[in-house]
């Protein structure tokens, strides 16, 4: 399994690699096509008056970043319409686990400090309340704000209409076993042994003597899908130690038969065009390349990864940001159902 930690977001992808499910090869005019033989901008190829200093691009070219990043056609198709938003909201609101023995689907969010785990939970809840809601407390320091295992049942359009989705928030991952959530404690959560509200510490791992320890967890106590959360603006600067942590986690979680997907957060911070208009996220070569880098970091195909923009400073929600968030939840629930199907095959007595 290889990792790529040094690729700068926005660099040209290698189109000799296979095109993955749900993605399209691009046909794009690169900024390099506007350069002369000496490697400098050719004034004959650049329209008069097109003079700016574009971050991440070539100084002196109008929209140099856009020349490098915006594709002629999206690499994933999304319907940016009110109808699509309503369809997704209804689908998630009415979702029922594919197992009659369960009333809730439990999803665990894992990622380094500041990746946006708590913000994603609050953002998803905000979609249903129609205004920004800090459901999960969010910190701003380099240390993990979340210390305890917290379970958030996402409420529907009203508090009286909870969905069947439970998002689990926990402290951030570290570069090894001495900082952040440990491999041992992560597996204890997934297996259903760690009690809600347990405060984690590398010095005090979850054991049978832990207060509230669940000795014989049932299917409802266990995690039904794991979601890795990585920050698009930090993918190329994450340490090798964190990459190793991801690799170890994925191997052990896979051994437990739990499906894994990933969220690429803060995509608006790596591409100006996407920051201006979130509907351009799948037209951005920078976002696509960053997702490829995230896949290498996680050891995961990009078909498992979806980009999101969390709400942060906004007071009101936005239709297109909602669609991206709801699409991510829909993506997660597909793999939750796959887990229940796998469980039914392993334990025939479970009712699906």
UniProtKB/TrEMBL annotation:
Q: Which Gene3D superfamilies match?
A: P-loop containing nucleotide triphosphate hydrolases (3.40.50.300)
* Record-linked InterPro entries: P-loop_NTPase (IPR027417)
Q: Which GO terms describe its biological process?
A: immune response
Which CDD domains does this one have? Ras_like_GTPase
This protein's source sits in the domain of life called: Eukaryota
What is the protein named?
Answer: Interferon-induced protein 44-like
**Encoded by which gene?**
ifi44g
